[in-house]
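User: Is it possible to get a 3D structure for a protein together with its bound compound? The compound here is iron/sulfur cluster. I've pasted both below.
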Amino acid sequence: MSGNNSAAQLPVMERFYTIQGEGFHSGRPAYFIRLGGCEVGCVWCDVKQSWDASAHPVRSIESLLQEALQYPSRFLVITGGEPAQYDLRPLCRLFHENGFEIAIETSGAYPLVAEADWICVSPKKFKAPLREVMQAADELKVVVYHKSDFSWAEENAVQVSPDCRLYLQPEYSRFDEQIAAIIDYVKAHPRWKISLQTHKIIDVP
Ligand code: SF4
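Assistant: Yes, that's possible. Here is the predicted structure of the complex:
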């Protein structure tokens, strides 16, 4: 096996074949790997059960590949938890060798040690993103929980590269309160787009 053996196994909370519901790749079938472990501590986190890495079984990257190969899509999404808490290069290399395109979803709070084709940074107020990760982002996805989050979104947007796609996404439990303001904001600031959690509408993981 190629790569750093130390990360040839990773704690996996869940893995599933589904439709990417959010952001730039919304609507695209993908094999998801949700890694366990996150120390960012967002109050509204909807996957708090991911936080404790030791609560999740450690799986070999080879076994993850073999499972992913059973499905027709060659698009892998690595999420968490906070996947950047791990050296993801062995996982990425193995999947790349087998024809996968790889997207990573991260808070940006940790150096990203990976070989990804698409980096989606969703920054969190609870642990600021690193400048180097923001610069590498292909997609900035800011979750809007409160109307004050628009100015915070702009503070983040100045840190990304000029060709990074910008998305505002209502926090799911605040959807009804926030969506009208998000629509108004995007209409007035057209470099932003709206991202919706469409997987929740079509009821897939
Ligand atoms: S970074 Fe993601 S997984 Fe971690 S606490 Fe925040 S929302 Fe939850």
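Residues 175-188 form the longest helix (14 residues). The pocket of iron/sulfur cluster is lined by residues 38, 40-42, 45, 47, 50, 80-82, 107, 124 (CB under 6 Å).
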